[in-house]
Amino acid sequence: MQAAGSDSPEGGLGGAEFVLRRNCSLSPRALMVVFGSMVGLSFGFGIGFAALGAWLILPFAGVELLALAAAFLIYGAHAADCERVRVEGELLTVEVVDGGSGSRYEFPLRQVRLVREESGPEASWRVRDRLFLACRGRRVEVGRHLDAHRRAGFERKLRVVLAGAARVM
Q: What is the DSSP letter of 13?
């Protein structure tokens, strides 16, 4: 999570921005290097065994590399997923990028609520609680890409920003 604070000249309300990104350990360039080395290694072994008479290794190496390419494409499609929560003036904006498509939600800052929904013991180990920004029957989930500890920190910081907006009323 990256967070930046700034003073907003509009309406006297402070501005803040939170950028919530996926934890991706490989950059696109590193991903290509890994894939290229896997292609070279797999076909190198395949050609070596084909030269020794085991020519069926090459089609299996091709199938293996197609499956690896599909996995890397799926990873790459979601590597840039993020959520940007921005407070400017009297408006709270949430921009969600998921798999290359983007959505934008705007809420009046003084009316938006941050809601935490806690899941029971049947929930998966990964998602115990979820955060939503809600206003006038509309709601959007935020913090989907954060682990529990970072989600709690984001929740605390966002509650401070929302409480500050409520005090200015």
A: P
Q: Is the pLDDT of residue 95 over 90?
A: yes
Closest CA to 99 of 147, 129, 144, 60: 144
Could you give the 3-state DSSP secondary structure of residue 35?
helix
Q: Which residues contact 136 (CB under 8 A, 6 or more apart)?
A: 111
Beta strands in 81-123 (DSSP E): 82-88, 91-98, 101-108, 113-118
For the entire predicted model, the pTM comes to 0.68
In Å, what is the CA distance from 71 to each residue of 22, 44, 57, 68, 112? 17, 21, 21, 5, 39
CATH of the domain at 156: 2.30.29
> Is 97 found in the same domain as 73?
no
